[in-house]
């Protein structure tokens, strides 16, 4: 039985996959594993090396956090919050994003930050009972993520 999911205009989804350099570094595992097995059998070494390389890259992609906005909620990694508890999102790129990830990083915020992803969205939490004062989320398209959060706030 197939189910159809109706996507609203507030829906946004992005997987914060590994950067190219992380994928290349993981791919180096394949020849290293193959070299260990060459004394046993060259064919087996090549096969095992290829399988290990593909598995390492697949694992990196599979465990990458997902950022999603749907049904009036913002999901970042394993956490979520109702959009109504959030203030005005600020999309940052370039030097502003580097500052927000570095010296300007708020220790009391909820962070889902990935290296190799330049964009960042900072959203203050307006719920006084929440110990996190803001959400800091990496995004390849921070303007689109901020717009999706605004739409979710307006619709709920």
Topology (elements, then pairings):
Blueprint: E1 12-15, H1 20-27, H2 29-37, H3 42-62, E2 66-70, E3 73-76, E4 79-82, E5 90-92, H4 94-101, E6 110-112, E7 120-124, E8 134-138, H5 142-155
Structural features, described:
Helix 2 (29-37) packs antiparallel against helix 3 (42-62). This protein has a four-stranded antiparallel beta sheet with strand order 1-2-3-4, covered by helices on one side. Strands 5-7-8-6 form a four-stranded mixed beta sheet. Residues 1-7 have low confidence and may be disordered. It has two domains: 15-62; 66-155, no CATH class. The chain is elongated. Helix content is 38%, strand content 21%. The chain has 156 residues and is α+β, with helices and mostly antiparallel strands. It has five helices and eight strands.
